[in-house]
Amino acid sequence: MRSFFNALLVFFLFGLLFSCSTDVDNYADYKDITIVYGLLESNSDTTFLKITKAYLGPGNDLVMAKNPDSSNYAGKLDVKLKGKKNNFDLPVIQLDTITIKNKLAGDSIFYFPQQKLYFTTAAIDPEASYSLEIMRDNHVVESSTNIVKDFSITQPTNRFNFASTAATNVAWIAAENAKRHEVVLVFNFEEIWPGSGDTLRKTMQWNMGTVTSSKLDGSENLEISYNGSEFYTRLASAIDVNALNVRRFAGNVDVYISAGGGDLTTYIEVNTPSNSIIQEVPQFTNIENGFGIFSSRFTLKRSYKMTVQSETKLVESYPWGFEFKFIP
């Protein structure tokens, strides 16, 4: 009797297996999902927001990405910024659309060179908080952010020193409402090539690193250290060191510190590639009824001269054609 039931069970399982349909529906019913990317800056003359939609369909996704209709909403959505300061509502800012044509091939897998953005030239008040409202038929997409405020660099105080062999610091006071602070140095210089009277303005960019504050109240003193010898090593990689008879002249050293809001910091950290093959990547968004990020940042720029010792080392210790610039 047991053998009979075992045989019957096997027969039933085989019948169930081969009676199952092999047709698989990979695409559920379409759901409109809004994707938002936007950062508010109080020291910028124009605010841009990228508002698109998720897409799914048969065929190659990379091919679909090259079609603007796949991810763009038709027409213009109702997009507003609503500010609040000292518990009072500020005038509502209505965003318009603009098509820009400066997107280069290879910037992303999506269409180029045109892309549709929402923008406003209205001033962003650093003392206010802002909420974003996107109306799509009866569907509302929302988010909010505080504004990252201005801050100050405390070191260097006068000139930039690359001649010292000891570690030197760039120091600043953390921006209020910000956590992630990225430091970029840009060295400006000029070139005059033989047989040409034109002066070419060149730059060398040095991404010095990132420092994250532990609080949002702007009370922390932050710093990042650098070694002066790395400046000359990086400069050698940015110029043609074997060129003959090229005249070069050192210019200003510009320091940019970009401070990003708390949600922006979390978004970047969550989406940083992991070295682990078993770690599940979490998702983060602060867009209600959508996905993406709406936050704030502030980019501070300060220009310096090189110390006399740093420029002397550049002119006299390296055969790259740098000269002292005579100023009458």
The percent of residues in helical segments reads: 10-25%
Highest CATH level, the class of the largest domain: Mainly Beta
Largest sheet: 10 strands, mixed
Name the average pLDDT. 87
| Total DSSP E strands | 18
| Residue fraction in strands | 35-45%
CATH architecture designation of the largest domain: Sandwich
Identify the overall geometry: globular
Order of helices and strands: HEEHHEEEEEEEEEEEEEHEHEHE
**Residue windows where pLDDT falls under 50 for at least 5 positions:** 1-25
The helix tally amounts to 6
Straight-line N-to-C gap: 112 Å
What's the gyration radius in Å?
Answer: 28 Å
The CATH topology of the largest domain turns out to be Immunoglobulin-like
Whole-number total of structural domains: 2
Helix/strand-derived category reads alpha+beta
Briefly summarize what is shown.
The protein is an alpha+beta fold and 328 residues long.
Task: Describe what you observe in this structure.
By secondary structure, the chain is of the alpha+beta class. It has 2 domains: 34-146, Immunoglobulin-like (Sandwich); 153-263 and 296-323, Immunoglobulin-like, CATH 2.60.40. It contains 6 helices and 18 strands. It has helices spanning 2-19, 61-65, 68-71, 228-238, 262-270, 308-317, and strands at 34-40, 47-53, 78-85, 88-89, 93-94, 96-100, 115-120, 129-136, 139-146, 153-155, 159-160, 167-173, 178-192, 200-212, 221-227, 247-261, 290-306, 322-323. The strands form 3 sheets. Strands 1, 2, 6, 7, 11, 13, 14, 16, 17 and 18 form a 10-stranded mixed β-sheet that branches. Strands 3, 4, 5, 8 and 9 form a 5-stranded antiparallel β-sheet that branches. A 3-stranded antiparallel β-sheet has the order 10-12-15. It starts with a helix and ends in a 5-residue tail after the last strand.
